[in-house]
Amino acid sequence: MGGLAELWRSDRIVRLAPVGAVACSALLPVVQVMLAFGYMGNDTRTGLWSLAAVVTYLPLHLRHVWYAAHARRPPAGVWTFAVMAAVILGATPLAGNMWPRSYAALVVSALLVLPAPWSYIVYVTVAAAAAPIAYALGLPWTTAPWLLFSVLGGSAALLLLVWLPAALTRLRTARELLAQQAVAQERRRLDDDLRRSLGRALESIAARGEQAGRRLGGAAPEDLSDELAALADDSRRTLADARQRVRGYRQPSLRAELETAATLLAAAGIETRLELPRGGVPDAIAPQSRAALRATVTRLLRADAVPSCTITVTSTDGRLRLELRTGEATETIEIPA
Question: Residue 240: which residues within 8 A CB-CB, separation 6 or more?
């Protein structure tokens, strides 16, 4: 239940993070409209122009943020950005001397929508032009550093709010892809195992059955009794082998668990090495050992500054142990025989 609750919380964060990014991206334009009405040198006319411009460009900007927070580029994003830029730049002479603060939204959308290097060129050019344009609109030069900081700081904060849920979305997608690859790999292993063992046995039984059927028409039944008895014995052995293998498949494979753990750690940027004994490893892993391994891997994925991890299976006095070494720390997990 604890693992399910933790997974639900992490998925809920991934779902709600884009909503938070959109909500925070809508706050700055609201403050911009308030300044257009009340800051020195502005009046009702500039406030109304600012309000009209915000109402026009804000849906386009929030659309860019929403798609980027989901790690996707918006359809026709270049065209919607062009419309947004035309509205913001066109309203500059009319929306008051504080209007260049809205350039923060413009440069954020540029980085989210435009391809490099054009996005960086637009970001640097527009941010650098904010203070001179504000001065031309009547804002004192003494406020230029504050205005530049407002554009740079506001855009950086918005970009962090967007890139964080995008990174979470990419991480969840990678985790799902790894799980699908692990399932596909396990299915291939089972298919190869069944083909090598049961497949050959069933083909032999079928061939012998066909041969006995052809002989049945011209031979006395007592002449085929020994062959039919042997065929029945082989069928029962094959059935028992099939049942045993199915029971084994219901238990998780130790090697598959170790390979999945190494893949997850490597995908998280942790240099991982898997060392197995020459004699091989058991086919199954006990539930308590599997739970301990998964808990350790989860803790390493959440930890900071874990550069590398070595997963080693050792045998001491006939007892298998699983060791996970990360620098000076070592986690030991017993593997019952």
Answer: none
